[in-house]
Design brief:
The complex is a heterodimer. Chain A is an all-alpha fold. The two termini of chain A are 38 Å apart. Chain B is mainly alpha-helical. Chain B has two domains: 56 residues, no CATH class; 216 residues, MetI-like fold. Chain B is 76% helix and 0% strand. Chain B starts with a helix and ends with a helix. The chains are: A mainly alpha, B mainly alpha. Chains A and B meet through helix 1, helix 3, helix 4, helix 5 and helix 6 of A and helix 1, helix 5, helix 6, helix 12 and helix 13 of B.
Chain lengths: 283, 301
């Protein structure tokens, strides 16, 4: 099994230093040229892809944590019928994401979609969503928040592990709801937040399928009709790798991009894990 | 001095007052719970409405779908969309391929991950820890590190155009589940396997008769999540399947989007609904295993 993994890894490293196009074998060794091309302007899309992925990481990860935690807190109120509510929040996560992405294409269709119809009825501006470079990423953000069920459930489990006695003790000491949240719930929840943060970041850096589907869907269906479109606004780093490897035939270059991604993911994970000691409390 | 009558009146008033206080408290509690339900329902709406829209769009006629402003209820109801979706070119192939790939992956992953995890958990051999660290490395490194050359390796050995790239690799196990199952196997008391060994049981017998029955919940989690991951997967089919007769349902939905426009929204929603049905049914059948799987191991899908 390890051998099956080792061969492609070594081969991938080798590709990254060649000009392999997928046709002529053996490819030429080009040294660090592929990495130079990322920054010397040969590939103008490189910086776009980095920017899009950075935006996504800085926006979607915090949003996911905040919305996930907020809903878990509501679910933790202990009202009757909590199982029903939990199912309602979790159901969207069961929709295979090809299905949910297609559904959001339809909901966010600029002319006939439900969202713009409602916005229009309220006399609010109606953005072009996946056809507008400024609104494509926010559209994807809504789609990703819709399938946040697993995060909610992980947070809910974390909340249910917070001992009731601690809350009671804090109440006796005169702590209000907000103060108890800040000083009791949140510190005890830091391991769960940390866990969701690491998972969220790893997924955000490699985000691919949803953006691929909405950007390549035809204009007539509210998509952009080009990989990473419109105007490169959804050219996530993984989409750029895919495009370079499987559509442009720059296999060597895209292998270099893939390795950069691997290094960045590893480095980010390492940084978060290293700094976690300062804010994660293990009871 | 208070007369007996007065005392009785005061007592009665006090009782009335207490009852009123209790009633007020109960009312406040009722109002608070009402407010909580209101907030929960308001928060749930953005999650429910798209799902509802998927459902009703699948049952709307074409003119009804394009009516502006949109109608909140199909008028009239129609099953035409489902017929169109099912009759789309290749639908039967997609269902067959998806079923085959999913069942293959579930069986192969459960069996091979368990067999690989067993020695890591229960047998001492030289280089075991180093090997296990390698398994962990394959787990941590993003799939992008091997994706591109894997594609070319499959191309060179003639696997492109077949279903093998999506099935055979499962025979080598999944490093995440190898890890998960190893952790569970390590919790089985060694006294049990030692006793069995003294009674003449082989490693093979210990694995099947002692370990497997005791880690059934972990095996169920492995099977369930392998099903969901394989069934939902879009990325691997997109890259490794290039012959339309090998496509899966997920790819089929995407192909449908590429080949149609907004006027075919009805069939597309019906198609997506068909795609959504198996995971939803599975959820209601295995709710506890699924929720436990998410909370215990942080699995997402």
């Amino acid at each position: 099994m390890v051998g099956l993994w080792l061969i492609p890894t070594v081969l991938s490293l080798y590709f990254a230093f060649t000009d392999y196009t997928g046709a002529v074998w053996p490819p030429h060794w080009v040294g660090l040229n592929n990495f130079v091309q990322m920054v010397d302007g040969t590939d103008p899309d490189f910086l776009t892809a980095v920017g899009v992925t950075a935006w996504w990481m800085l926006i979607s990860v915090p949003f996911g944590l905040i919305v996930g935690l907020a809903i878990a807190l509501l679910l933790n109120w202990g009202v009757r019928g909590i199982g029903i509510y939990r199912t309602l929040f979790f159901m969207p996560s069961l929709v295979p994401f090809v299905g949910s992405t297609v559904l959001f294409l339809w909901l966010f269709n600029p002319e006939t979609g439900l969202v713009n119809q409602v916005l229009g009825a309220l006399h609010l501006p109606q953005p072009g969503w996946f056809t507008d470079p400024n609104w494509a990423k926010p559209g994807l953000l809504f789609q990703s928040l819709w399938s946040i069920g697993a995060t909610i459930i992980i947070f809910l489990a974390g909340l249910q592990d917070v001992p009731v006695e601690l809350h009671e003790a804090a109440s006796l000491d005169g702590a209000g709801t907000l103060s108890r949240f800040w000083h009791v719930t949140l510190p005890l929840l830091t391991p769960t937040i940390f866990f969701n943060l690491v998972l969220g970041m790893i997924n955000a850096v490699q985000y691919f399928a949803q953006a691929f589907i909405v950007s390549t869907s035809p204009n007539s269906f509210g998509g952009a009709g080009e990989v990473g479109g419109p105007a490169g606004s959804t050219l996530f780093f993984a989409l750029h790798i895919y495009d370079q490897a499987f559509q442009q035939g720059n296999v060597g270059y895209s292998s270099a991009l893939a390795w950069l991604l691997v290094v960045v993911v590893s480095a980010l994970t390492l940084v978060v894990v290293r700094t976690s000691g300062r804010w994660v409390h293990y009871g | 001095m208070v007369s007996r009558n007065d005392a009785a009146t005061t007592l009665a008033e006090g009782r009335v007052q207490t009852a009123a206080t209790i009633r007020r408290a109960a009312r406040r509690k009722w109002l608070l719970s009402l407010a909580k339900h209101a907030v929960l329902i308001a928060a749930a709406l953005p999650f429910v409405i798209p799902f509802y829209w998927l459902l009703i769009s699948a049952f709307k006629t074409r003119p009804d779908l394009l009516t502006l402003p949109p109608t909140p209820w199909p008028n009239p109801w129609t099953l035409t969309n489902f017929r169109v979706a099912v009759e789309v070119n290749g639908f039967g192939d997609y269902v067959r391929n998806t079923a085959y790939i999913t069942i293959f992956n579930v069986l192969a992953t459960v069996v091979s991950s368990a067999i690989i995890a067993y020695p890591f958990a229960r047998i001492q051999f030289k280089g075991r820890d180093a090997l296990f660290i390698l398994v962990l490395v394959t787990l941590i490194l993003p799939p992008w590190s091997t994706l591109i050359p894997t594609y070319f390796l499959y191309k060179w050995i003639g696997w492109l155009g077949t279903l093998r790239p999506l099935t055979w690799p499962a025979l080598t196990g999944n490093s995440f589940f190898i890890f998960l199952l190893r952790q569970f196997m390590m919790t089985v008391p060694f006294e049990l396997s030692d006793a069995a060994r003294i009674d003449g049981c082989s490693d093979y017998g210990i694995f099947w008769r002692i370990i497997v029955p005791l880690i059934k919940p972990a095996l169920a989690t492995t099977a369930l999540f392998t099903f969901l991951w394989t069934y939902n997967d879009f990325f691997n089919p997109l890259i490794f399947l290039n012959d339309p007769s090998t496509f899966t349902l997920s790819l089929g939905v995407y192909q449908f989007v590429l080949n149609h426009g907004v006027t075919d929204t009805g069939p597309l929603m019906a198609y997506s609904l068909i795609l959504t049905l198996p995971p939803v049914v599975l959820f209601f059948l295995t709710q506890r295993t699924m929720i436990r799987g998410v909370t215990m191991s942080g699995l997402k899908f």
